[in-house]
Specification:
Layout lengths: L4 E7 L4 H10 L5 E8 L5 H8 L4 E3 L2 H6 L1 H7 L5 E4 L8 H6 L4 E5 L14 H9 L4 E8 L9 E8 L6 H25 L1
Parallel strand pairs: 1-2, 1-4, 2-3, 4-5
Antiparallel strand pairs: 5-6, 6-7
Helix pairs in contact: 1-7, 6-7
């Protein structure tokens, strides 16, 4: 049986979620990851993907916005786009091509700590500054508004008053590794 569901992974940084997703699906006969697209040429996610035999390409933020043909050719044949730590805003033409088929993970319990500037350590610092007793992840569909797409799933972790932003990041990352691939699988396989 040939693999039928194709995922394009979009990344910007270190790529731990990218690697985790590739490993999760590498022995799944129904799912294939033909391409990892990075917005930065120096993203370590590229190395992780190549080490696992997945083709990679770099599409800069400017190309994403200005070269619709390049982007659409790159993801041609893919059924879903998975944002696994991808920072640029997804342009409207991709949203139109992939309605409810672009999935993002955000390192907070949206709608709290979402939107412009809320990524990575900025989120965990804001959670700490607000004195939150819990944080977590939100996996959601992408729409035209940053971090406002329909929620697919949320998972929480408890915080203690002594947790630093780094401690919060570690707890949230554990949730990402545990749940992101499973949620993707549920969505793409119905």
């Amino acid at each position: 049986m040939s693999k039928s569901i194709k995922l394009a992974l979009f990344v910007t940084g270190g790529g731990t979620n990218c690697e985790n997703i590739i490993r999760y699906f590498q022995n799944d006969n129904e799912v294939e990851i033909p391409i990892v697209v990075s917005s930065r040429a120096d993203a370590y996610a590229i190395v992780r993907a190549q080490n696992l035999g997945v083709k990679t390409t770099v599409i800069t933020r400017q190309q994403l916005n200005d070269d619709q043909q390049l982007v659409t050719e790159t993801v041609k044949g893919c059924d879903y786009i998975i944002l696994a730590g991808f920072l640029p805003k997804v342009p409207g033409y991709l949203l139109d091509l992939y309605p409810n088929r672009i999935i993002n993970i955000h390192p907070s319990l949206l709608p709290k700590f979402g939107g412009k500037g809320m990524w990575g350590h900025h989120v965990h610092e804001a959670v700490k500054a607000a004195g939150e007793t819990q944080s977590g992840i939100t996996i959601h569909f992408v729409n035209s508004q940053l971090d406002e797409g329909e929620h697919i799933a949320q998972f929480t972790c408890q915080l203690s008053p002594t947790d630093t932003p780094d401690d919060i990041a570690d707890k949230v990352h554990e949730l990402e590794i545990a749940y992101f691939p499973q949620v993707i699988e549920k969505v793409i396989k119905g």
